[in-house]
């Protein structure tokens, strides 16, 4: 066996051994309460992270050196592949992505166990056992059905080259790792859920730890989904960013349940209720990440993301069923002890808003799951092939998303317990007026489409409630402590990061919602065929076709690019080239759309067809308003959630003081 | 009554397991070809050896048309011995025909030199006309045509021995 793949394969075997050992050590530690056993399990988990890192490094070296003795390299690389593409090919296909996945999963496990090494001993033992079991599964997949270091025999002289779609945009370097970080990280709350059910510790402390460990992967998942939409928009050339593709849905499903958990856990923490519910949500979230992986990796549903069919499907299915059955059994077992504990609350209160929020998130989860699995169900029962398209998903989900948007403003403004009519009137009057004013202004400016108008009005209402609250709080602070307004706002928000970080996330979501409503409601597109010298118009733009060029790519001569060179004028002006690229290993040409982005709108041009004899081209032209705000909204969500989980200075100081006090106490004792 | 809650576990697990399980063994990208049951396209093309071959030469015999390419690794490499074996077994009762799909003759010859040439003809389809007529989306794709010139079955993706037997049964070769 060649050296580098040999090292890689050995690392995988070592990783499997270490994780299996860790499971055993943690389970024994739970029975014997010997701290050395748990410590040794923890070290084995950290070691398995090292093993996965060595495996990834070996694969990376094999890709960068174009070592075609490794089947994965032969299938996903060619000797002409640029280094950057070779490197990101680590997650371009099935086996490599499992290897990379395992690196992240073991990384999360090592981080969590290290961070809580001295606390919550009973709980952490089972967290460790659960995480090590999950990771052992991934190592086992790489030892048996999905070995990334399978060798070719005889060794091919030239590989078949990377996936054409992967080559076409640097965003592929970003979107899968973010998603994977989210997916793998969501095993952590699941492990805490399992551990809490076993040890019967579903208390407020548990909720606080799990909330944090859910929020961090949630941020990555959110950014990953947004980056995926962006990639789809910039690369696939159909002018849109979300197609309700099964694999997009697979990423959305755990996101929906994780978001539901983040909200329900607040009620559980403050008011005691919803505890079974919260633990059911972390279990559902993890199972849905596995289902998502299964859908992507087994080729069960058709999608641009499907990798080739492979034998790992049955392994994943078994894992899904074991995880689901095991966690459900635990939940049912503890059910009698978890019921109760909530304090009663009024109909109009923050609790009910949270409850309704969870009902809606769960409704969305069921709707998306149903739409995604329906083709499978129909095929299984009647043998017919059907597909559930975007219109169905839009019809079903949009009302629920709008209701969530409404709740987003109303919920945080309502007090815990019971809200009186006076509170409601006092808090909602100004925002309601602002919403009416802005909607009327938009109507006056010429916005005549109901969807965008309604969403805009709702968003202003929700934003108004939040701004109103911040202003009130800051004003009170400024008056009582004699601070200037900016300081007052800063201190107010940093003293309650969770609340105001959450508001910032909500602002990001509002921005996205308005951008989605406007871009999908007001986009225009047309298809034109133009000869060189001719001009086509779309919206306020004039597009002139200059010439058609067919030439090999500068950085990869195997790829032939057919490019229309155009000039455009209007709200933006300049030159652009939009192309179709023929990759030797792709049966269809890959579109390379040209996107000219401004804050108001994008000009988006794809080449559909061309006639080399006359130089005439058929173009699909789009003017997509406000699309850039979707990405900006996504960034705001990321910033807001990072703000929310940032350790509060107050908390850090307390921790330091406690440590010093303990140090002093032990010094006195000695 | 207290134990009824345990029913929750199988109620959730069994249907999900069953549903996902049915997904195996089906290729979702497989598009049922509208050509099945229709007469196969007519063609006259030159082979890699330089001879002309046409549908008229095959009249009265079932034949198998396999679209492949030297760059289609590993699928075409994997199915190559399957095609050769079928040709060896049934070559006297039917004709196996390879068609180059977006490939150069030099690369195709190198592929055959390397992985073995079973001796059946390979058509050169320079402008991809035949692939378009058959509605090929990507190699390997294989069509099974009966003695009357009607397309009876189609394989999307690489053939295995078992699949080959199953498809050949559609044009009258018992397993």
Question: Could you please describe the fold and organization of this structure?
Answer:
- The complex is a heterodimer of chains A (670) and B (175).
- Chain A has 670 residues and is of the alpha+beta class.
- Chain A folds into 4 domains: 1-168; 173-400, no CATH class; 401-521, no CATH class; 524-628, no CATH class.
- Chain A is 66% helix and 10% strand.
- Chain A has 21 helices and 9 strands.
- Chain A has a 5-stranded antiparallel beta sheet with strand order 2-3-4-5-6, with no helix packed on it. In chain A, strands 1-9-8-7 form a 4-stranded antiparallel beta sheet.
- In chain A, a hairpin with a 4-residue loop joins strand 4 and strand 5 (574-582).
- Chain A is globular and about 80 Å long.
- Chain B is α/β, with parallel strands linked by helices.
- The interface between A and B is medium-sized, with 37 and 30 residues.
* Strand order, sheet with most strands of chain A: 2-3-4-5-6
| Oligomeric organization of the protein chains | heterodimer
| Content-based structural category of chain B | alpha/beta
State mean pLDDT of chain B (0 to 100 scale). Answer: 84
The average pLDDT of chain A is 87
First-to-last CA distance of chain B = 55 Å
- Sheet of most strands of chain A: 5 strands, antiparallel
Adjacency order of strands in the biggest sheet of chain B:
5-4-3-6-7
Q: Please name the fourth-level CATH homologous superfamily of chain B.
A: Glutaredoxin
CATH topology of chain B: the name is Glutaredoxin
Q: Note the total helix count of chain B.
A: 6
State the domain count of chain A.
Answer: 4
* CATH architecture term of chain B: 3-Layer(aba) Sandwich
Backbone shape of chain A: globular
The proportion of strand residues of chain A reads 5-15%
Low-confidence parts of chain B: none
Instruction: Tell me the radius of gyration of chain B.
Output: 20 Å
Instruction: List segments of chain A where confidence is low: pLDDT < 50 over at least 5 consecutive residues.
Output: 665-670
Largest sheet of chain B: 5 strands, mixed
Tell me, briefly, the overall form of chain B. Answer: elongated
